Amino acid sequence: MDPNSFANNSELRKFWYPIARATDVNPGPMSVKLLNQNYVVWRAADGFSVAVDRCPHREAPLSAGSVSDDNLSCPYHGWTFSGDGVCVRVPSALPDVPVPPRAHLEILGVVERYGLLWLCPQPASETPADSIIPNISQEADSTFRRINTPVEIWQTSTPRLVDNFMDFSHFPFVHTTTFGNSNETVIPKLDLGPLEGDFYGYQYGVNAKNPSTAEATSGEQSSFVEREMSTGFCLPTFVRSTIAYHSGLSHILLLLSTPRDDFSSYFTFVVWRNDDFSTPADEIISFDLAIGAEDKAMLEQVSGLLPLDLKQTVSVQADKPSVEWRRQFVKLLEGAGAD
Ligand code: FES
Ligand SMILES: [Fe+2]
């Protein structure tokens, strides 16, 4: 096995990961993949239900079935399951024959947070507290609005995504059609430390390009705009960037990467901002979506897994934040916890 493989690591199964937008499961069923396992998600009476995407009868994918009256029916022989996993109907059975006890589904833990469904790949009784989902204080602040974006599949390994989000020396080279400023390639010395909330990272100032396509997001019309930023990670794979403009506008990005397997990821981001709520959400996020598309186009050209041994890649001072994330991620994989 590739020594850089991480998707079967048991330590990663102790966290919650975003796997779908809640509005996209209506009522489902939807197929999702997390850490090498396929799951089926559907909306039932009491909320969302998630189970391994394999029927206990002959292993058909339940996500190819249908949801009716909160129940999930298998496409193969019609066995039907309630939201708590109980097999409530075996169509071939005579009326007085009970359902076999092993016909029931094991339901996994799922929580809804920030408009997303977060899955922990453990039986519901063994999931960690959902307080380990990174806290974004602006969610409870009525001067901020939240904007969700689609959950995309990126054909790149999740550590490469996180490494990218912790890095800003690529801005002038990758973000050429958005905010990258080709005159600002030098990265100042960075001090890492705890940031507000559950994040660890750095603060910095950026003189960003502000093309007309960025005006709805920045609220500014000049060709360049000063941003005060912070970027930090929350283990295992989450990154938050905060952008403060001199106008008082604050734009928070939660960049969420979920390992489907070693080589592909879900990516979605959530925005909070304290504007006057007058500009439509689609216009606000179109610039950020264009930035994400630039990262995706770059990362999907980088093949294979990010080496977990830091010495296998060459890093310079500007890489200090991404190296620190990788160091803590490796420690987590080793079961040593983070520091
Ligand atoms: S395989 Fe699902 S009902 Fe037979
Ligand atoms: Fe980027």
Largest beta-sheet characterization: 8 strands, antiparallel
Topology as H/E string? Answer: EEEEEEEEEEEEHHEEHEEEEHH
CATH class term of the largest domain: Alpha Beta
| Percentage of residues in DSSP E strands | 25-35%
Q: How many domains make up the coordinates?
A: 2
Rounded mean pLDDT score: 95
Helix content: 10-25%
Low-confidence stretches: none
Helix count, DSSP H or I runs of 4 or more residues: 5
Number of strands: 18
CATH architecture of the largest domain: Alpha-Beta Complex
CATH superfamily (homologous) name of the largest domain: Naphthalene 1,2-dioxygenase Alpha Subunit, Chain A, domain 1
Structural class given helices, strands, pairing? alpha+beta
Radius of gyration (CA) equals 22 Å
End-to-end distance, in Å?
28 Å
Q: Specify the overall morphology.
A: globular
Structure description:
The chain is an alpha+beta fold. The protein has two domains: 17-127, Rieske [2Fe-2S] iron-sulphur domain (Rieske Iron-sulfur Protein, 3-layer Sandwich), CATH 2.102.10.10; 142-333, Alpha-Beta Complex (Naphthalene 1,2-dioxygenase Alpha Subunit, Chain A, domain 1), CATH 3.90.380.10. 14% of the residues lie in helices and 31% in strands. It is built from five helices and 18 strands. It has helices at 158-165, 171-174, 215-218, 281-299, 320-333; strands at residues 17-21, 30-34, 37-44, 47-52, 66-68, 71-73, 80-81, 87-89, 108-113, 116-123, 145-148, 152-154, 193-194, 200-209, 224-234, 238-245, 250-259, 265-273. Strands 11, 12, 13, 14, 15, 16, 17 and 18 form an eight-stranded antiparallel β-sheet that branches. A hairpin with a 2-residue loop joins strand 3 (37-44) and strand 4 (47-52). Helix 1 packs antiparallel against helix 5 (320-333). The two termini are 28 Å apart. The mean pLDDT is 95. It binds FE2/S2 (inorganic) cluster and fe (ii) ion. FE2/S2 (inorganic) cluster binds next to loops.
